C-alpha cells in the first residue's frame, strides 16, 4: 500500500489569543486561529485581497509553548497536517471541524522572544480527548 501525504504550512497572524485546556487524562492542548491573506490584481487592474482562516491545534509541549509565546496579532509559521473531527451537538446534529494539527511553530515577529519547537509526533494525540 502506498503512503499518502498530508502536510500544511501556513504563515499568518493570530486572530485571537491561544486557549489552552487539558484533556481528562491531563494532556495540554492549545487552540487558536490564524489568518492568511493573499492579494491579486484583476484583469481590469483592480487590486483584490482575500483572507482565509485556519483553526490550529497544538498538543503536549508545543501546546504549552504556543500558549506562552503567542498572542492575538502574532505573526507565526505553522507546519502540521489537516485533520477533520466530528461530533454530535445537543440538538442531535452532526458537526464537523477541519483543523491544522501543528507539529512545528515559529514566531515570526519580535513581540515576544522567538521560539521554534518540533516535538516528537505522538500517534496518541488524535484521540477523542478534546476538552472542547
Task: Write a structural description.
It is a single chain. The protein has about 130 residues and is mainly beta. The chain has one domain (about 10-40, about 50-115): OB fold (Dihydrolipoamide Acetyltransferase, E2P). It contains 1 helix and 7 strands; from the N terminus they run ββββαβββ. Strands 1-3-4-6-5 form a 5-stranded mixed beta barrel. The N and C termini lie far apart (about 35 Å). Mean pLDDT is about 85; it is low at about 110-125.
CATH superfamily: Nucleic acid-binding proteins
**Biggest sheet, strands in spatial order?**
1-3-4-6-5
Strand content: over 45%
Q: CATH class, anyone?
A: Mainly Beta
Query: Percent of residues in helical segments?
Result: under 10%
Number of strands: 7
Uncertain runs:
112-124
Radius of gyration: 17 Å
Shape-level CATH architecture: Beta Barrel
Rough shape?
globular
Measure the end-to-end span: 35 Å
Helix-strand string: EEEEHEEE
Mean pLDDT: 87
Provide a concise account of the structure shown.
The protein is mainly beta and 132 residues long. The protein has one helix and seven strands.
Based on the model shown, name its key terms.
132 residues; mainly beta; OB fold (Dihydrolipoamide Acetyltransferase, E2P); 5-stranded mixed barrel; 52% strand; globular
Strand-helix topology:
Elements: E1 8-14, E2 19-22, E3 28-41, E4 47-59, H1 60-69, E5 75-88, E6 94-107, E7 116-117
Parallel strand pairs: 4-6
Antiparallel strand pairs: 1-3, 1-5, 2-3, 3-4, 5-6, 6-7
Amino acid at each position: 500500500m502506498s503512503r499518502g501525504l498530508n502536510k500544511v504550512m501556513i504563515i499568518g497572524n493570530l486572530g485571537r489569543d491561544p486557549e489552552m485546556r487539558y484533556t481528562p487524562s491531563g494532556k495540554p492542548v492549545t487552540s487558536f486561529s490564524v489568518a492568511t491573506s493573499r492579494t491579486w490584481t484583476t484583469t481590469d487592474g483592480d487590486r483584490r485581497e482575500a483572507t482565509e482562516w485556519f483553526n490550529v491545534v497544538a498538543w503536549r509541549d508545543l501546546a504549552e509553548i504556543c500558549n506562552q509565546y503567542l498572542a492575538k496579532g502574532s505573526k507565526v509559521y505553522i507546519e502540521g497536517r489537516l485533520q477533520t473531527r466530528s461530533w454530535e451537538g445537543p440538538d442531535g446534529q452532526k458537526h464537523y471541524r477541519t483543523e491544522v494539527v501543528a507539529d512545528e511553530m515559529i514566531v515570526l515577529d519580535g513581540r515576544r522572544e522567538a521560539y521554534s519547537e518540533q516535538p516528537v509526533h505522538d500517534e496518541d494525540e488524535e484521540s477523542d480527548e478534546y476538552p472542547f
